[in-house]
Amino acid sequence: MMIAFEFAFTAPFQKLRALPSYLEILIVPMALRFIRIAETLSAETRSIDLKRRKSNYLSLRFAAWDVVFCVLLAASIAAGLIL
């Protein structure tokens, strides 16, 4: 279902206030799609024989881009709560 935000709101302030909801509408289905793709790839790659010991753990580090996105996420949530 497609929602036309240009016609639903009359003031730019209303569009800005609805921005967190709009971002949620875009991000949640995308995240679910990514999870489904990751599960499929995981199932397909289990059968590949590796020369080293198999492990399910991956070392991840928090990078500068992660900080930027966390700040943007917090700002969009705060904007949704304040407006």
Automatic annotation (TrEMBL):
The chain crosses the membrane at residues 58-82. Keywords: Membrane, Transmembrane, Transmembrane helix. This is Cobalt transport protein.
